[in-house]
Write a structure and sequence with these properties.
- This protein has a domain of 187 residues: Replication Protein E1, Chain: A.
- The strands form 2 sheets. A 5-stranded antiparallel β-sheet has the order 5-2-4-3-7. A two-stranded antiparallel ribbon has the order 1-6.
- α1 crosses α2 and α4 packs antiparallel against α5.
- 38% of the residues lie in helices and 14% in strands.
- With 287 residues, the chain is of the alpha+beta class.
- The protein starts with a helix and ends in a 34-residue tail after the last helix.
Length: 287
Amino acid sequence: MLTDSEHDVQLCSLLVSRSCVASLEQLSSLANPYRAERANIAKPGRHHSSKCITMRQAENMMEAVQFARSIGLPLVAHLTIHWGYTDVGDDQDGKLFAKLREGLDKWARRRGFPLAGIWARERMSGGQAEVEHCHLLFHLPVKYRTGKGLSEVEAAIYRLINKHGRRTGSKPSDGYWADEVVKLVIHYCPDGKYLIKGGGPDVWERFGVRREHRRLQGLIQGKRCGTTENIGRLARERWETDEGWEEDVRARSSGRPRALATPQDCRVYRIRPPTNKESHVKITCRL
C-alpha cells in the first residue's frame, strides 16, 4: 500500500509527464503548421457527403440498365423504402440500405437467380426535405412478377426491413410501424431515369429526365447511388473481352455450356460457332 505522500508524488509526476507531451505536440505543430491542419481532416469516406448525382454516376447507372436488359436480366421491379416508417426512423449513412440489399441478394440466390440492379438514396419528397428514402430497380424472373411469386418477394422485403429497421433492444416485431414503408411496383421495361432525377441540370438534359422529376434530392452522407457488381463497370468491360473463349469451346464440345463468371451467376452462355465464319455471341437465359 502506498502512503498519501507517495501517492501525491506519483500523481504529480504523471501530470508533469502529460504536460510535457502536450507541450511537445504544440511545438511540433508550430514547427510544421500543416500538421495540425492534417490532424483535423477526416479520413476519406468517413464524412463524405454529396448534393447531387454526378454525370459519371448517371452514365454508369444508365449503361447498367441497358446492359442488364441485353443479357436477359431486365430491371423490372422498382422498390422504394421510406425509413421514416421504421423504428430507427432514418438511415443517415446508408448502412441499413446496404444490409437490406445484401439480404435480398442472399434471398434471390437461394431461389436460383442473382440480384442485379441500380439504386439511389434521396432526402426530398414533394419538394420538402425529410428523412432518407431509397430506390432500388432490380431484376425479377417472370414467376416472381405476379401472384404468389410477387407476394413472396414482398414478404421477404418486409422481413428484412423488420430485421434491420428496429432499434437495439426492441421487440422482433417492432421494425416498422406502417405498411407504407415499402412500395414495390413491377414495370414492363423501365429506363431507370427516375433514379437519376437528383443529378442536376446537366444530367437532366443529357438523359432527358422528365420535367416533373427534375429536382435535387437533398444532401446525402456516404455513397449516394450505384449498381450491383454483376452489371457494374468491371462486369461490362469484362463481358466485352474475348476471355474464356477456349474454355467455352471445350465445354461446348463436351455437351455442357460453361457459364461465364461475369456477369455473376447470370446463366448466360457464350458460344463460338464451329465454322470459320465471323465469331458471334449467342445469349440464352433460363431465368
